[in-house]
Amino acid sequence: MPTIQSTGTEEVHPDVALVERAREGDTAAFEQLVRQYERQIFRVAQHITQNREDAEDITQDTFLKAYEKLDQFQGNSKFSTWLVRIAVNESLMRLRKRKTSKTVSMDEDVQTEEGSIPRDFAEWRPNPEQIFDQNELNDILRRTIQGLPPGFRTVFTLRDIENLSTEETAEALGLSVPAVKSRLLRARLQLRERLSRYFRQRKEGTPA
Amino acid sequence: MNCTDFLSQLTDYFDGQISPELLEEVRAHLAGCSHCEVVLNTTRQTIEVYRDHEIYDMSEELRDKLHSAIMTRCMQKKRA
C-alpha cells in the first residue's frame, strides 16, 4: 500500500490522517471525510449539470469512487481537490450522456469571443439585494449561470464559488493555468453582461 | 493601455497577481475610462453576488438521505 507523501516543511492537512485511517479500514474516518465534503461535491455537481437528480447520483458515485480508489490518492494534491476532480469528471460524463448531439468537454467554446465583450456599461445601483427578494435573486442567479457553456460554468464554479485557487482549479480540470484564467475571464464577463439586464441602474423615467 | 489590454489583465488584477508596473497602467486606464470602471465594479459584484447566495444548497433532509446512501454503498464495496 503506498504511503501518502508529505512535502516536509508544509503543515500536514488533517485530511491526510483521515485518509490514512480510512485506508486501514477505519469507516468512521471515511465517514468524516464524507461529512466534510458532501455539500461541496453536491453543489459542484449541481452547478455543472444543472440537474438535482443528477447531482444526487454524482455525489454518491463520487464518494463511492473515492472509496474504491483511496490507494490511488497520492497526497500531492489536497484530498478535496482530488474529490472535486472525480465529481467534475462524473458531471461532464452525465452532460455528455444527456446531450447526444453535442460534445461536452472542457475544451469547447473557447474559440468564440461571443458574449465576452462588454456591451453594457451601466452601474448596478441599487444593489441587487435591494431590488429583488431572496427567491427572485436566486432564481435570476440560477437562470443566468445555466446559460453559460458547461466549460465556463465549471471554471467559474470551482474558482469563484468554491474558492479553489487557480492552480487547484487547473489540477481538478486537467487544464493549464492560462487556460483556466482565460475561461474564468470569459465566464465572469458573460455572467456580468447577462446579470446587467436585471441589475443595471435604470435611467430616470425608464420603467423597470 | 487600451480597453482590450485592460480586460486581459482583469483576472490577475482580481487575484492580486499583477506586477506593480502593470497595476499602475491599469489604474491610469481606469482613471480615464468610465466604461472599464463599470466593467470592473460590476464584475466584482458578479463574483460577490454568486459567493453570497448559495443557490444550490441542500436541505438537511436531503443531506441525511444522501449521506446514508453514500455510506451504505461504500460499506457494501470491499476496497480493492
- Assembly state here? heterodimer
Number of strands of chain A: 0
Helix content percent band of chain B: over 70%
Q: Please trace the helix and strand order of chain A, writing H or E for each element.
A: HHHHHHHHH
Helix content of chain A: 55-70%
Number of strands of chain B: 0
Number of helices of chain A: 9
Major sheet summary line of chain B:
none
Unreliable parts of chain B: none
Structural class of chain B: mainly alpha
SSE topology string of chain B: HHHH
Commentary on this structure:
- The termini of chain A are far apart.
- Chain A has helices at residues 14-23, 27-49, 52-68, 79-98, 128-131, 134-146, 150-161, 166-173, 177-199.
- Helices cover 62% and strands 0% of the residues of chain A.
- Chain A is elongated and about 65 Å long.
- Chain B has helices at residues 3-15, 20-32, 34-52, 60-76.
- In chain B, α1 (3-15) packs across α2.
- Chain B is mainly α.
- The longest helix of chain B is centred in the middle third of the chain and has 19 residues, at 34-52.
- Chain B is elongated and about 60 Å long.
- The interface between A and B is large, with 50 and 38 residues.
